[in-house]
# Entry
Amino acid sequence: MQGAQKGFELLLPALRKRDPSLATTVAARFAAVRASLAPYRTGSGFVNYSTVSPAQRRKLSQAVDALAEPLSRIGGTIVAR
# Structure
């Protein structure tokens, strides 16, 4: 997540020029993933994944999947004419 977030932040100025709607969507999806992860934070890390129930894992997975689709469109959007 941190690497993807950093990459997004670096490309954000160019993305805002090309597709402001996509920039807004990706930012919102990152926020949703962070919100989904928040209950599992402990100190500077997170709880052990083995303690997360299947239903909780599914919810986390859905948030990440919702981010992945618009995130995958950034490169093509920025290099498109």
Q: What stands out?
A: The first strand starts at residue 41 and ends at 42. The chain has a mean pLDDT of 95. The chain has one domain: 2-79. The longest helix spans residues 54-72.
